[in-house]
Amino acid sequence: MIDSTEEITEPSSIHITDEDQRRAGDIFLDYSVFTKPVYETPKKPQPKQTGIRNIMITSALPYVNNVPHLGNMIGSTLSASVFALYCDLAGYNVLSICGTDEYGTATEAKAVSENMTPRQICDKFHKLHCDIYKWFQIEFDYFGRTTTDQHTEIVQELFKRLWDKGFITEDSVEQLYCEKCPKFLADRFVEGVCPLCKYDDARGDQCDKCGRLMNAVELIEPRCKICCQRPVVRSSRHLFLDLPKIESKLSTFVEQRINDPSCIWTSNACTISNSWLRDGLKPRCITRDLHWGVPVPLEAYKDKVFYVWFDAPIGYISITANYTKHWKEWWQPSDDNEIELFQFMAKDNVPFHAIVFPSCLLAADAGYTLVKHLLSTEYMNYENTKFSKSRGIGVFGDDAMKSGVISDIWRFYLLYRRPESQDSAFIWDDFMLVNNSELLNNLGNFVNRSLSFVSRFFNSIIPSITKLEPVDTEFLARINKLFATYMRNMELCHLRDAIRNVLTIARLGNGYFQANQPWVAVKKPETKQRSGVVISVAANVACLLGAMIYPYMPTIGKQIWIEQCDLPESQMSFVQIIKNEFTVKRLLPDGHRIGKSCKQT
């Protein structure tokens, strides 16, 4: 497990040496153009000898049965998308995959409530999810779905392999049965009181309040979600994943990942995984008495389907297979291809990604790619309560789309308050305060005043840097330290800390601008050249901020880089800075004409 307690680095606390200043000045004065690599589409892994990291990113598949709220997005889809954009800037060969999770009781229950078929529900809400993510600029190389022939084929093939290897057992299970409907009440077709926390609306598979996973018969005062009648208990034959049989191998895998300094397992991922293993694994039922799901390919169980949490993680594989014919190079790679799998989710999904899914892949023993970096957040709440889809509490994706506030603003605030180490909350007053103080008065102020100064006093031409003074090299050395911290935080997926590094650079830039007063120096012939040096340094840092903020705010980042600085998107890259050991070079050379969008003020 990689651990870092990087805090926001305030400019005054950064230790700078003479060598830091010398190196900062020398490399900044150097200018060379770099164009980032373009990988073929559909993407395939690069061989080890190329020296390029092959990174595969997944986001927990969102349930298709409802509109995603802000709390859903920050823990999974938004965070995964931000990291994918960063990986592109860093020059990695990255494949990002997501899609809607469409099978299971949630979909059947939603179809019943809306008087539609499960397929109609899936089609309706898949499009809605796509529209919301497109508006939020949450993009993946491929956003698929689990209701495909490819998914059924891969799930059934993996199951057959587990069956043949003896990792599937059979047993009878006591289940709740509604005599009025009449049907077995799997998972979300039954609600009741949680036996642990006494929450009144716990589902038949999990309590939303305390997170406990359970069997529906454990519920106190259960009720059928369709007719509200109290069900009876009946027996039904089911299939189980024999977790105890694979427990030793899984335990070794989890321990290796947690203790490997090159792996990132968040604190709650470690705690939850160790808790499950400490308590001892039990056989887990992987079938349900439903119609909407992947059919079990055994004659004796032809009337059953797979439990959604057995088939859903396999969706990462099937969605990749729907995207590219090279999918096995990502999921069953040869020794020549090293794949780093990053998986983003909220903490309630950890058991399935750290225990159940790896157990299936380990038991299959077919060379599958296993999670290397497990990135789970805490929860984001809404004001002083929890987001709730069923009760309509919180801000949902379609609400944000209709708000009149651009998606970059929503993205910025959610990532600024990302619940990385403890629960956070979306608070309207804070939303307005943070956006005004940090985006408008800090970041926006520095970028706009620097570039508009070039437009107003230097005819939109970046002035020549004749000589850097100690105050300039000290400023650049501090920028280098902050940029290195930003890169470390991004590599660790500490997205909240990294965005604060961006804002600290902007504050430092405002201080540099204010202290050197270029608006005074530019009015005197003897100091105008000095004004040009200051504003050239400031404009270059503003351009750098455009690239640094791009993963968080794609539209704003591109506006700064392409429209205001007039640079091609193909040159937006951190590769050369990384090669220079995180020492920033000039991005805007002497004589470069910046964009017309920089208004003269």
TrEMBL record:
Q: What's the main place this protein lives? A: cytoplasm
GO BP annotations of the record are:
methionyl-tRNA aminoacylation
Family matches, as InterPro entries? aa-tRNA-synth_I_CS, Anticodon_Met, Met-tRNA_ligase_1, Met-tRNA_synth, Methionyl/Leucyl_tRNA_Synth, MetRS_core, MetRS_Zn, Rossmann-like_a/b/a_fold
**EC numbers on record:** 6.1.1.10
Identify the domain of life. Answer: Eukaryota
Q: Which NCBIfam families match?
A: metG
UniProt protein name:
Methionine--tRNA ligase, cytoplasmic
Organism field: Schistosoma mattheei
